[in-house]
């Protein structure tokens, strides 16, 4: 991820909370709050307790901002995403990959088995239209098999 800072520091230099807040268009208190919520944000501390953020910390904060502000995630959902995918997913992935991941997470298929008392199975992570067609085909085959078994039982 590229960072564009107004100051004349090296691109990989540590940044103060003011510089990071300016770059991410956030208030410093928001960054301090996120530090309390996400243990992955650990800026270095200088004399007097001043925070210095590494480039990886800034990239992580950018990813958190994308999920919280851009995708309207709750803090709890962001924490779950970090647990499932890891910190590196948020740090190294561009927004398009995060969008793809979120789209797959939202896909669900419900299969209702009426003969078993309204049992529902949820299937997540359908990555393509081809997979959906396979599942629909399988459901149709199972329904046909169920109908044949019911017909034999009634004979």
Structure write-up:
- The protein is α+β, with helices and mostly antiparallel strands.
- The chain folds into two domains: 15-106, Multidrug-efflux Transporter Regulator, Chain: A, Domain 2; 108-153.
- The chain is 57% helix and 12% strand.
- The protein has helices spanning 17-24, 28-37, 55-70, 75-85, 87-92, 95-106, 129-153, and strands at 15-16, 44-45, 51-53, 108-113, 119-124.
- The strands form two sheets. It has a three-stranded antiparallel beta sheet with strand order 1-3-2. Strands 4-5 form a two-stranded antiparallel sheet.
- Strand 4 (108-113) and strand 5 (119-124) form a beta hairpin.
- The model has no long low-confidence stretch (mean pLDDT 76).
Brief description of this entry?
By secondary structure, the protein is an alpha+beta fold.
Architecture blueprint of SSEs:
Layout lengths: L14 E2 H8 L3 H10 L6 E2 L5 E3 L1 H16 L4 H11 L1 H6 L2 H12 L1 E6 L5 E6 L4 H25 L2
Antiparallel strand pairs: 1-3, 2-3, 4-5
Number of helices: 7
Q: Percent of residues in helical segments? A: 55-70%
Low-pLDDT runs of 5+ residues are: none
- Strands of the biggest beta sheet: in what spatial order? 1-3-2
Count every beta strand, where a strand is a DSSP E run of 2 or more residues: 5
CATH architecture of the largest domain: Orthogonal Bundle
Over all CA atoms, what is the radius of gyration? 24 Å
- Structural class computed from helices and strand pairing: alpha+beta
Helix-strand string: EHHEEHHHHEEH
Strand content: 5-15%
The CATH class assignment of the largest domain is Mainly Alpha
Which fold name is given in CATH as the topology of the largest domain?
A: Multidrug-efflux Transporter Regulator, Chain: A, Domain 2
> Mean of residue pLDDT?
76
| First-residue to last-residue Cα separation | 68 Å
Domain module count: 2
